[in-house]
Amino acid sequence: MNKDDLLGPIAAMLEAQGLTMADLAEFTRNDEGAPSSRPTIKAFVATKILGGLSKNSQRSYHTHFNHLIEGIVRQCECVCSACIKDFARSGTCTCTTCATARTFPAQGDVFISTSAIASIDLELMVELVHIMAVKRAQGENFIRARQGLSIKPTHGQGAREMCVTALHRLKARMIENKLIEPDTEKGSKKGERGQPKRRALTDDELAEVFSTVASGGDDAVLDLALTWSEFELAARRGGVLSLIIGELDREAQMIGLLEKSNRYEVQPCSLELIDFLMDFAASRGATSACRDRPSTTRTPRSSTSRTARPNTPIPSPVGASIRCTDASN
Asked: What pTM value is reported for the model?
């Protein structure tokens, strides 16, 4: 039996597993038979991807890299109330009647090579991410409906696009590091965006909002402070409600906000807004000496939106918008 007779079955076996002879050569490059230069997907993401991203990109991509590394548990395409409740409770689908249920296996320990990456069903991962986003949105809308709030979109397009973008970034970095060959295919599709339903308020509509807010309610000045801050700073309601006078920087025309997930952001604003907020804070007993954030904070859910319900009172309105602790604390 010659060498070709021996290598033929080995090559066929490697091909059946999605590998090539080059992968075998790489694996046996050193005496121990361990891969000498090929990192795993998990190690590559940690050392070559996340560190080079901005804070916002890290937060956006991290979820999808975790799906790739740790896998995705069983998910079905059904959006019946039972499956959505099951997903909200356990993050998976435990029903036995859904024929569409699929899983995505963990890939974190896969050593990076052209054939290894090509053998991963990334399209399946994108589809499951899309399904989970739809179910999550459907579940949140059940809660919003019980609270009398309007529903949010449930198309899952944003999650799908972000997942595809994260995978494109990952493969691009692998190519830059010469770990895989350039891909001739375009990869996973981002899907089609629907027609946007949101629009900007006209000047007349904006004037009507402010006129309504400033002329009604139990505390019109507080209502105006909340609404003006939300519009100009493009801030979440929680960021405005947690604002303290120490975060107002008149010289730089900046306001510091504690936003979603305790993320601290500094936003530019007009001098008119800063002066209005400082005068409002002074009228409620705050002083420029206050710099500490209160030990107990007001949650976003403890107040209703001023733009949506301008004529309802806010409990304990004093200091809800611009708060202050005693300077001696």
From this structure: 0.60
Q: List every span in the chain annotated with CATH 1.10.443.10.
A: 203-302
Q: In what order do the strands lie in the sheet with 248-249?
A: 248-249, 254-259, 263-268
CATH topology classification for 203-302: hpI Integrase; Chain A (1.10.443)
Q: Which of 165, 153, 94 is nearest to 129 (CA)?
A: 165
Classify residue 152 by its DSSP letter.
Answer: -
The structure tokens 């708060």 sit at 323
Model pLDDT for residues 291-318, shown as the tens digit of each residue: 344 433 333 433 333 334 333 333 333 3
Cβ neighbours of residue 297 under 8 Å, at least 6 residues apart? Answer: 242
- CA–CA distance, 174 with 41 (Å, rounded to integer): 10
CA angle, residues 69, 111, 50, in degrees to nearest 5 = 50
| CA atoms of 256 and 74, how far apart (whole Å) | 42
Containing 130, the helix (H) or strand (E) segment is helix 122-146
